[in-house]
Write a structure and sequence with these properties.
This protein is α/β, with parallel strands linked by helices and about 280 residues long. The protein contains 12 helices and 11 strands. The chain has a 5-stranded parallel beta sheet with strand order 7-6-5-10-11, sandwiched between helices. The protein has a 4-stranded antiparallel beta sheet with strand order 2-3-1-4, with helices on one face. A two-stranded antiparallel ribbon has the order 8-9. The longest helix has 14 residues.
Length: about 280
């Protein structure tokens, strides 16, 4: 039984009663509000092209529309990226800012996330530029410059309340991933390890690195360990190195990423993770 879902960021929502009613009038189906101004389901839309109709009615409003099956909707494994996904920043760019190199490093980051550069080479190049950065400065950046993506904790805790295992797998760094995984509530965190000499960065990262293969393999391993199919998993990310895990997950969520929109049938463009909760945790 298909469900047409309308979803919005509660911080800047255009999803109201009149918009939902307009969609139902054209698509048919039963309207069920999950949270006013955040998410509603239109159960069993009658129009065969319900999604196209919804997109046409929504136009430029800040609302996402997706058709999802009701069967198997509640997922039991979550694997999520960290940078620009569960947190709002790219940590390596913020570290570079402390050395006056943010613009240079951010350009490399953007190209790597779009898949224009080899992720491993891009990581080594950027980390090398951080040589000499002091541990105390990194701790200050972690404490003052990094903010959680709105709704991330609600997403993780809702899934865990229904028995899901949640894993934060990041091409970023354990210095941040371990800390924010605990704050958000993830069961585990996997990330790259920055190397220090004393209290200063050496400009190198421990090998092997966490990359797209690590993310995909961790998703596969978690499903196998729990005797679950990949159809019972969800993967969330924003960049090229998330494509593999999103591609095999039962539910793939692309956050504000042009590259990912090209290959996914289900896309999320809003940055607030709360609007994802009804899709796979309710």
């Amino acid at each position: 039984m298909p469900v047409l879902s309308l979803i919005a960021n509660p911080a800047d929502s255009d999803l109201d009663v009149s918009l939902a009613a307009a969609v139902v009038q054209q698509t048919g189906g039963e309207l069920n509000w999950l949270h006013h101004q955040v998410a509603c389901d239109i159960i069993e839309p009658k129009a065969p092209n319900a999604l196209s109709i919804a997109h046409e009615i929504i136009g430029s409003r800040r609302v996402d529309a997706n058709v999802v099956p009701t069967e198997g909707r509640r997922k039991l494994i979550l694997v999520a990226d960290m940078d620009s996904t569960m947190i709002e920043q790219e940590c390596i760019d913020e570290l570079a800012a402390a050395l006056g190199l943010k613009e240079q490093v951010a350009e490399i980051t953007d190209r790597a996330m779009r898949g224009e550069l080899d992720f491993g080479q891009a990581l080594d190049t950027r980390v090398a530029l951080l040589k000499g950065l002091e541990r105390a400065t990194i701790e200050e950046i972690r404490r003052e410059a990094i903010t959680l993506t709105p709704g991330g904790r609600a997403l993780v805790h809702t899934m865990k309340a229904y028995g899901a295992f949640t894993s934060l797998v990041s091409g970023g760094f354990t210095f941040f991933a371990d800390y924010f995984a605990k704050r958000i509530g993830f069961d585990e965190a996997i990330a790259n390890v920055l190397q220090f000499e004393g209290d200063k960065l050496t400009g190198t990262v421990q090998k092997p690195i966490v990359d797209k293969n690590t993310k995909r393999e961790r998703l596969e391993a978690l499903a196998a360990e729990r005797g679950l199919s990949l159809g019972q998993t969800i993967a969330v990310g924003d960049g090229a190195n998330d494509l593999d895990m999103i591609g095999i997950a039962g539910f793939g969520v692309a956050l504000h990423a042009i590259l990912l929109k090209i290959v996914l049938s289900w896309q999320k463009h809003r940055r607030d993770s709360r609007s994802s909760v009804p899709e796979f945790a309710s």
